[in-house]
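Internal ticket - ligand job 332, S-adenosylmethionine:
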Amino acid sequence: MDERTTDIAEESICGRDGLLYAPHPSNARVLDLGCGTGIWAVDVANKYPEAFVIGVDLAEIQPFNRPQNCDFYAPRDFEDRWALGEDHWDVIHMQMGCGSVSSWPSLYRRVFMHLRPGGWFEQVEIDFTPRCEDGSLVHTSMHKWYQWFQEAMEMSWRPIGHSVKATVSILENQGYSGDLVRFGASVNALTTILKEDINPRDAMTISLISEYKPLFQSSDKEWALKAEIIIHQHLCYHEGKAHGGILAFLLDHMFADCCALMDRNRRAVTADLKLSYIRPVSPNLPTSFHVWVAKVEGRKIQMAGTVSLIDRELGEVVAVKAEALFIFLATS
Ligand SMILES: C[S@@+](CC[C@H](N)C(=O)[O-])C[C@H]1O[C@@H](n2cnc3c(N)ncnc32)[C@H](O)[C@@H]1O
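stdout (structure tokens):
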């Protein structure tokens, strides 16, 4: 990818509002491994003026004109010896590192050693495997090309593929603990496919899902998605009140994405969707959507969700409760 394409890809993965997901102090020391053009590091430095951000990369392609609280070390190999000080970083970030790393266990160990106690490592990856909902890509040249590309990357000891399960297991073996928050790369890809399928004149749908940047969480017990979404007033029926149908659309969309995360190879459809509107949701303010899988029985997926907002007096309150039944379609 050229530099501009990388920047566009970065915007579509992280979103301009959701630069840093890891909790961090305002004066955080942040390290970006394989920073590429440096756009993420510069944006974080601008957004958090008290923070200090360093990007490292093999290629010296970062801008000279950078914020004072941002610096770049390039050319520098993050698989070579680090002389950046242990216990040094509040957040270490890596975005699109797959295809660049010969030993993930060593890199994760090194990252672990250089985080201050309680610090965070966050990694954002894309699953590039070409897929299509109806499976029609399977015998195409694109599919074949991707297989060869994968083989070539493996032969160069830097696999391009990414597996959430394998990553979590390596992270756990290297001593990481607590909430292992994983970014929904597959969800973002899914949403992107959906966006491409939309008729460009359908401004309402585009406007609705353009705010949708889900954060995927899972543990042995639960599959869940969280997203902060702004519902714009121009899509609402009443002034100052988010349209109930829009909230239902977004929750239904998130339920479907949550099912896709559980099993990408099967399609799930809505069989039942119930919403209780407890209090009005204001448009033009970030609103928290949270959906999770409550129970799976054969092809049936029982799900639940909430829409929450911040009330000045009460703090975080639930404005909408949702329950859904999704069904995995039978495979022929
Ligand atoms: C796919 S790009 C991602 C760039 C950036 N993180 C982004 O999301 O736009 C991967 C970057 O990692 C850099 N890279 C690959 N191997 C590296 C290494 N061993 N040490 C430092 N940088 C490396 C490449 O030069 C490239 O800029």
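Auto-summary: The first strand starts at residue 29 and ends at 33. Residues 4-17, 180-201 have pLDDT under 50 and may be disordered.
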